[in-house]
Write a structure and sequence with these properties.
This protein is mainly α and about 130 residues long. The protein has helices at about 1-20, 40-50, 55-60, 65-80, 85-105, 110-120. It has one domain (about 30-120).
């Protein structure tokens, strides 16, 4: 009985230490501002990571803000390369990430409307 308790305690201790993140293991996408291709992507990041949206993201196992920022950064790079068609496609895909969440019932259209409106209003003119 005591041996079982000791083994359980040690496994919890070892497991807990293994789960403590260090700098390398922490989520690198949370702020990639240094690597964004354009300042407007950083503005989008600040909007997407507002505390008022945490309940929306809590129901979505996909971490949509990560995917949206990745697509928007690719759109910014496409704009730099003067490929506005690709930039527009990537921006539509970024908006589609949230629309897919509505289809999968992670959140409602009214939940994401403020996010979608912000994104549409703040995308550069060439891709909005």
């Amino acid at each position: 009985m005591k041996l079982t308790a000791v083994v359980c305690a040690l496994s919890l201790l070892i497991g807990g230490v293994a789960l403590v993140p260090n700098d390398v293991q922490s989520a690198p996408w949370i702020s990639e501002a240094d690597s964004y291709a354009a300042p407007w992507v950083k503005d989008m990041e600040q909007e997407l990571l507002k505390k008022e949206y945490w309940m929306i993201y809590a129901n979505d196992p996909r971490t949509p803000q990560k995917e949206v920022l990745r697509l928007l950064n690719r759109a910014a790079k496409a704009l730099e390369a003067n490929d506005s068609a690709l930039a527009q496609q990537l921006a539509r895909e970024a908006l589609g990430v949230f629309e897919e969440g509505v289809r999968k019932h992670y959140y409602s259209q009214s939940d994401i409307e403020p996010i979608m409106t912000y994104m549409r209003q703040h995308l550069p003119g060439k891709i909005s």
